[in-house]
């Protein structure tokens, strides 16, 4: 299994037996350029209204990284507040689309997860992962912070877990740490085991009363109604920080 070679990434949805499987990919470790984030948010909106779908599985291409976060090339190119806010709003829009989607979302995580990818995991309703699915939030090292995704991550791992992840910004936390904290529900030794269990869970959920599933989804996200505003405000905060002297100097080291 190889990931796409398309510079703007790929996004495919397959619907079978009331289970919609969304698969995204990008040649740079399944990272997200803005265009791909926009497509993903719209896909969740579309599936939310699809009566042929009862449950959604979110996965990425390949057998290595699940998601390396937002596009680094786009991040480096930001030179004004408007573009900065728009860039960081990408994950805000996806998380809000996942939150408001009427269908339960199962995350299938086969490998390492960085930055915005951790936010995606946090926004899933139930996550199954492999032992290779270590996580890291390294934003502080370049002078910004994971402000947009923090509410989704904190909702699963708590304030102490969020602090541990963000302040120890150079360290990976392994999949069992993520499970102990509540980000992952179960961890498997291999991708084949993971896929079997994801399929089994999705089939079970798809066989349940869709009205009950819809009500359960609402119950799980109770108290997050203000996120439409909160996450966009956080995007503006990140947009300001990315223009700071500290961040410009930090990013300059990475420029090609």
Describe the SSE topology.
Elements: E1 10-16, E2 19-25, H1 34-48, E3 55-60, H2 72-77, H3 81-100, E4 104-109, E5 113-114, H4 116-123, E6 126-130, E7 135-136, H5 150-167, H6 175-181, E8 186-188, H7 191-206, H8 210-220, H9 227-241, H10 245-252
Parallel strand pairs: 2-3, 3-4, 4-6, 5-7, 6-8
Antiparallel strand pairs: 1-2
Helix pairs in contact: 1-3, 3-4, 3-9, 4-5
Mind telling me the C-alpha Rg? 17 Å
Largest sheet: 6 strands, mixed
Helix content: 40-55%
Low-confidence stretches: none
**Proportion of beta-strand residues:** 5-15%
Strand order, sheet with most strands: 1-2-3-4-6-8
Shape summary:
globular
Order of helices and strands: EEHEHHEEHEEHHEHHHH
* Total of DSSP H or I helical runs spanning 4+ residues: 10
**Total number of beta strands:** 8
N-to-C terminal Cα separation, in Å?
Answer: 28 Å
**Structural class label:** alpha/beta
Average pLDDT works out at: 95
